[in-house]
């Protein structure tokens, strides 16, 4: 090649590398739009709704950690508040048609349970209340079963904030699966021994008859009653004050059937308040 000549350089990326590179561009585009770049904002709005939801969910949930503290700088020295806070707010405002697979909802649930910054955690919790999706209680209940005490406490707090009949339905449904008498089961620990019990005579030959016998112990067990478990503790933590019921899912089911209208009314009031708050100016949220 002579000096001054130009050549076209083609870089081929593997599919996963290409997707990662594209996502980095999209994340950068969103951050610039949040920072006030008008051209970036226009380009961001031109992306498909599903793409925007995926980017917002990744930005909100990927960095969720109980080690996060308010106003701590990230590795590049940029305060984490602006882009993540705005992403969480936008996820909280999404319509079901923009988030059919619940990816944004899962991101909100992740932040609400596993985020160390209380303001972001409270904002995500408010978003879950505003969206009022029936899938959320199941996801939060899974988070409440984690061994991490802080994550469990955050999940219980989010369940209590929802407070809808669906929350209690999910807990009672799972509780019924483990309540009461369980199946009978047994195990055997022993030794098999063989011996010559007899001989079969065939002509002038003898064929030994081998027989076996077992010696050992059989342990037979049956669960008769569950006195205390995860579901008993959780439902008492989220129940309204003053509710004193026995440790029996049937009793709680009767209570739910009776109180369903009141719970639904209170949950709807909370949903409207959360939605109104999220529709207002982007202000800091108190936990």
Tell me what you see in this structure.
The chain is built from 11 helices and 2 strands. It has 287 residues and is an alpha+beta fold. It folds into 2 domains: 48-179 and 227-279, no CATH class; 184-222, no CATH class. It has a two-stranded antiparallel sheet with strand order 1-2. Strand 1 (184-202) and strand 2 (205-222) form a beta hairpin. Helix 1 (15-34) crosses helix 2, helix 5 (103-114) packs across helix 8 (149-162) and helix 9 (165-178) runs antiparallel to helix 10. The protein is elongated, with a radius of gyration of 30 Å.
SS content category: alpha+beta
The percent range for strand residues is: 5-15%
**Largest sheet at a glance?**
2 strands, antiparallel
- Write down the Rg: 30 Å
Distance N to C terminus: 65 Å
H/I helix tally: 11
Integer tally of domains = 2
- Report the count of strand segments: 2
Multimeric state of these chains? single chain
Low-confidence regions = 69-80, 283-287
In what order do the strands lie side by side in the largest sheet?
1-2
Q: Percentage of helical residues? A: 55-70%
What series of H and E elements makes up the topology? HHHHHHHHHEEHH
Q: Calculate the mean pLDDT score and round it.
A: 83
Gross geometry = elongated
SSE inventory with pairings:
Elements: H1 15-34, H2 38-46, H3 49-62, H4 81-93, H5 103-114, H6 118-131, H7 136-144, H8 149-162, H9 165-178, E1 184-202, E2 205-222, H10 230-238, H11 249-279
Antiparallel strand pairs: 1-2
Helix pairs in contact: 1-2, 1-3, 3-4, 3-5, 4-6, 5-6, 5-7, 5-8, 6-8, 6-11, 7-8, 9-10, 9-11
